[in-house]
Amino acid sequence: MTQQKHTVEKIGGTSMSRVDELLETLFVGDRKGADLYGRVFVVSAFGGITNLLLEHKKTGESGVYAQFARADSEHGWHEALSRVATAMVEAHEKVLKHPGDIAQASEFVRERIEGARNCLIDLQRLCSYGHFRLSQHMLQIRELLSGLGEAHSAYVTTLLLQREGVNARLVDLSGWRDETDHDLDSRILNAMNDVDPATEMPIVTGYAQCAEGLMREFDRGYSEVTFSRMAALTGAREAIIHKEFHLSSADPKLVGEGRVRKLGHTNYDVADQMSNMGMEAIHPKAAKTLRQADVPLRVTNAFDPGDPGTLIDDKPADEPAVEMVTGLEIIALEVFEQDMVGVKGYDATILEVLTHHDVRIVSKASNANTITHYVDAPIEVLQKVEKDLCKRYPSAQVSARMLAMASVIGRDLKGLSTLTRGLQAIADAGLESLGATQGPRNVDVQFVLERDDLKPVIKALHDAFICREAELHKAA
């Protein structure tokens, strides 16, 4: 498709909870007339709403979906759905000022929530008959519930903008009460068919109902997939993700505001490593879509409108350099079996069990009789994995240890002795690395640590690779 003059821009959930502030920065600011337009916004649900609809992303606490799936009590999911309605109303009451807008948004919530409730009641009743199985419909239920959050935030944002005199238009891709069957591309193209970004501001739901089922492959990453396909299909000039912070060399809360450095420019290799470490700039599949469509990606701070943010493309670094230090808490799942030496199949079986329990693997290490997977998953899930592995290998010792991993990342780390210097920096801080790895692509080095050491290690590595290098450049 011929590249157009418009941009496609995504706003995350945390920023959406401050959408009223974005009027003064992102949506309007100093813009007037035609300068307001030429931008398509794809929005996430307000912060915390998707957790209430599905399950908490970090703690695993049950939302409506998890309550309905377990059916622990007859009223459990009903109460959970009512909590969602209350949270939605509280969210839009914080950002909408006009009583008429609040009333419209509250009615929208009532209509969608009660519609979903009736749907789930009917499905439960249907599946009380032996010919129907609830398990066969759980993915559709997950999709239905997910779409409620984005539909609500898009509707509220449209009301907010229209009240400010902006020609905003709701583009609801959630398929609510839509009897037609679309794949993702046709869902987007049909919805955008008569939309003119040059004269109106489309506010698009981050969730799109489609025949493929976005959650089957992407689960909670669906909004970035919608965003990237929207940018690719409409031939956007640029795809922009707005966050509440800049992509920086480390967490400023951890190493200090004045010590971090904005990335400014990096590539998709670094974005993939960030995603692997749990601080996703963009879903890897969404990044692939943009790369193939030759649409540049930019990540900006939504509340710092004068800053161009960080451009992500395929260009290599001008020279080797460390760009970021980050980390996350992990669990080391270790399988020790004396008879493993020379026997094939152990790793394949472990991977099969991890895949069955939907466990995300961050990294792995192995030797003659031990395979260790460093994973990011709730401990209760790992307990199920341990149980299954012990059944498969009764004579093996299976253990799970709570650890952490720090990672030094850059487009090109060649010749920097990153592994050696990193270990030295950790030792100089009076700490110890339990393990360390560096791959041949030279884009990241990983250090395995005790959990309590993660924050001080990130600070020590950042001081060694970012702050010290900056001081040396100044001196030169």
Largest sheet geometry = 8 strands, mixed
Helix content: 40-55%
Shape: globular
* CATH architecture descriptor of the largest domain: 3-Layer(aba) Sandwich
% residues in beta strands: 15-25%
User: Which oligomeric state applies?
Assistant: single chain
Record the strand order, biggest sheet. Answer: 3-4-2-1-5-7-8-6
CATH class of the largest domain: Alpha Beta
Compute the number of helices: 17
The CATH superfamily of the largest domain is identified as Acetylglutamate kinase-like
Low-pLDDT regions: none
Structurally, how many domains make up the residues?
Answer: 2
Task: Determine the mean pLDDT.
Answer: 91
Gap between N and C termini: 48 Å
Query: What is the tally of beta strands?
Result: 14
CATH topology of the largest domain: Carbamate kinase
Determine Rg (CA atoms, Å). Answer: 24 Å
By secondary-structure content and strand pairing, the structural class works out as: alpha/beta
Describe this protein's structure.
The chain is α/β, with parallel strands linked by helices. The chain has 2 domains: 7-244, 3-Layer(aba) Sandwich (Carbamate kinase), CATH 3.40.1160; 324-475, VC0802-like (2-Layer Sandwich). Helices cover 43% and strands 18% of the residues. It has an 8-stranded mixed β-sheet with strand order 3-4-2-1-5-7-8-6, sandwiched between helices. Strands 10-11-9-12-14-13 form a 6-stranded antiparallel β-sheet. Strand 10 and strand 11 form a beta hairpin. Helix 10 (222-233) runs parallel beside helix 13.
